[in-house]
Structures are given as structure tokens and as C-alpha cells.
Amino acid sequence: MSPAKSNDGSSGYDASQIVLVPLTTAFATVASALHAEGFDDAWDEDAIIRLLDVPGAFGILAYRPGDQAKNAKDQPLGFVLMQTVLDEAEINTITVAPDARRMGVGRALLDAVKDRLLAAGVTRILLEVAVDNDGAIALYRQNGFAEIGRRKGYYARPNGRKVDALVLERLI
Ligand SMILES: CC(C)(COP(=O)(O)OP(=O)(O)OC[C@H]1O[C@@H](n2cnc3c(N)ncnc32)[C@H](O)[C@@H]1OP(=O)(O)O)[C@@H](O)C(=O)NCCC(=O)NCCS
């Protein structure tokens, strides 16, 4: 596996250290803390639990295992929360801790989602993304998503500014 890049573009992080586990409600505190780092309108623990409790919902959590010898704790890196209905799935949210970005965590989460959806017979993944979210759009395009629509004024920024959403689709 090629070395992943750190935020400044240097090498120094081994992407094989990313461990993926099911995001259960037991991790709601961890997930809400990660969400708060990624979004202005962050979801609290209750919101995460409610979304995970919906039939057809599942999540995947990425973390870097700690090292007892070095007194280093497990480090949450990011998570994705999905909703499936019959043969379609929607990405409800995906977020990666700011200091873990551009290291392949987002890509690893999307790969794991695809594997799980394929096993469940899902053939189509949908999502909405703000038109000005260049990083997320780049991640999705790199992972085979294509634009199929646009929702006018879908998101409201804290300053009240409305931003369109792109609707992206990936057939798997
Ligand atoms: C979008 C987000 C999840 C990407 O996660 P990530 O772990 O940094 O993504 P990866 O490292 O797996 O990136 C894989 C590829 O996607 C593209 N990409 C990801 N972030 C990018 C950015 N900021 N700018 C340009 N390309 C980007 C690149 O092609 C990258 O490959 P490379 O690093 O080899 O060039 C992360 O930036 C994030 O959490 N943002 C805040 C929350 C958010 O906006 N979520 C999406 C809501 S729709």
C-alpha cells in the first residue's frame, strides 16, 4: 500500500493503520464529536442514535488503534452514516477529523460502504453535497459518483446565505 499523505502533503502516516468497525449507538458520543468538527449544524448524540435506529440504517467508524506501550489511546478518525431502502442507499453523512484528512480515511469509508451494500443487493447510492464543498465533491467524483440533479437553496449557512446542493449518484 502506498503511503498516505498528511495535510501538508508530506508522507508520515500509514493508511493501513485505519481500522473500520460498525458504528453502533455505543459510539454516538464519538460520532457527534466528529460531526461537530465537520459541520456547522452538527448532530448531537440523540440525533445520531435516532438515525441509527431507523430500519435499514447503518454506520461505519474509522479509528487508529492506540498503543498501550506509548500510552496512546485509540483515535477516532471519521465515520459514515447510511440509510438503505430496498435496492437504494443514501449517504446521510460522512466526516473525517480535520487532522486526519487527505490520508485516505474518506476513501476507506466509501469502499467499506460499497462492499456492504453490494453484499446486501443495493445497486445505487445517492447523496447531496453543497456546491461549494470542493473537497467532498472531489472525493465523490474520485469514487465514481456523477451529478444527476441540483436542489436550489438546499442548505442555509449560519449567516443565512442559501447554498444549492448537487445530487450525486453512483451505480454499483
Ligand atoms: C470530504 C471529507 C469527508 C474527505 O475525507 P478525507 O479522508 O480527507 O478524504 P480522502 O483522504 O479519502 O481523499 C480521497 C480523495 O478525494 C479527493 N479529496 C478529498 N478531500 C479533498 C480536498 N479537500 N480537496 C481536493 N480533493 C480532495 C482527493 O482526490 C483524495 O485523494 P488524494 O488525497 O490522493 O489526492 C473530509 O474533507 C471532511 O470530513 N469534510 C468535512 C465534512 C464534509 O464536508 N462531509 C461531506 C458532506 S457531503
From TrEMBL:
It comes from the Bacteria. GO terms for molecular function: protein-N-terminal-alanine acetyltransferase activity. The keyword Secreted does not apply. Its EC number is 2.3.1.267. Pfam families: Acetyltransf_1. Residues 18-172 form the N-acetyltransferase domain. Keywords: Acyltransferase, Cytoplasm, Transferase. Belongs to the acetyltransferase family. RimI subfamily. PANTHER family: ACETYLTRANSFERASE (PTHR43420), N-ACETYLTRANSFERASE DOMAIN-CONTAINING PROTEIN (PTHR43420:SF12). This is Ribosomal-protein-alanine N-acetyltransferase. It comes from Thalassospira tepidiphila.
